Structure formats: structure tokens, C-alpha cells
């Protein structure tokens, strides 16, 4: 997935911004991926916890805040794409859905490109 200068390689759990690899923990990557797959949608901390929860790890609502803070810091300028929604949680704001159509409307140019991992596919767009 590519959004402006931010690129996510799901199959390799890698994130790149401005051409540089960003070292993320597994949970940080999962959080970024979940937010990016839901652009413009306010996601509650509970929804995020439910998405990130794995059987071996326990995560609380406040852990989400810590993950977001670390993720924003690591992403640098792209960290501002993750915005707090007071009394709710967070949303990813690089691209917003226009409620009147199925097309994306953008306050800034954003191009979403979904790619399969090169290990799975040659990297062609689908």
C-alpha cells in the first residue's frame, strides 16, 4: 500500500517513508496497516485493541495511545497523518472518503496502491 511518501509492504512487515525504511515493531506495523486501510474513519480504541489483539498478548486501551505516540515519532512528518479523535480514538487522514461517491476525495494528493509481497507475487498492482 502506498499513500503519498508512505509505503507499506504487508508481506514483509516493512514501512518506508520518503524512501527510507522505518523500523517498526510488529504491533506498530499492524496499527499503521489497520489505520491506513480505514482512511478518514474514526476508530475507537476498543476497535483498535480488538484488531491488534493476538492470543498471546494482552493490550489495553491506553496501550493504543503509547503505540500511536511511538508510531508518530518513527514516521516523522508522515506521523501527522494519524490524528486523535477526542473521546473516541484515532483516524488516518491521508485520504478521506467522499460520502457522495465511491471515489476518493483528497485534501492532498494521495495515491493508494495495493501490492502483494514480492515473495508472493512479482509486485504487480491489483
From TrEMBL:
Q: Which residues form a coiled coil?
A: none
**UniProt keyword annotation of Calcium present:** no
| Top-level lineage group | Bacteria
Alphabetically list the UniProt keywords: DNA-binding
The residue ranges marked as DNA-binding region are 1-94
Q: Does the keyword DNA-binding apply?
A: yes
* Residue span(s) of domain OmpR/PhoB-type: 1-94
State the PROSITE patterns in the record: OMPR_PHOB (PS51755)
Give any single GO term for biological process: regulation of DNA-templated transcription
Q: Name one GO molecular function term.
A: DNA binding
Q: What is this protein called?
A: OmpR/PhoB-type domain-containing protein
Amino acid at each position: 500500500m502506498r499513500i503519498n511518501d508512505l509505503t507499506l509492504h504487508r508481506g514483509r512487515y516493512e514501512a518506508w517513508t520518503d524512501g527510507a525504511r522505518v523500523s517498526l515493531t510488529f504491533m506498530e506495523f499492524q496499527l499503521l496497516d489497520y489505520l491506513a486501510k480505514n482512511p478518514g474513519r474514526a476508530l475507537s480504541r476498543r476497535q483498535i485493541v480488538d484488531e491488534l489483539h493476538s492470543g498471546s498478548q494482552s493490550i489495553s486501551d491506553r496501550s493504543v495511545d503509547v503505540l500511536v505516540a511511538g508510531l508518530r515519532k518513527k514516521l516523522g512528518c508522515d506521523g501527522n497523518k494519524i490524528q486523535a479523535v477526542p473521546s473516541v480514538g484515532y483516524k488516518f487522514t491521508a485520504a478521506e472518503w467522499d460520502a457522495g461517491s465511491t471515489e476518493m476525495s483528497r485534501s492532498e494528493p494521495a495515491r493508494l496502491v495495493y501490492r502483494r509481497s514480492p515473495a508472493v507475487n512479482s509486485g504487480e498492482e491489483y
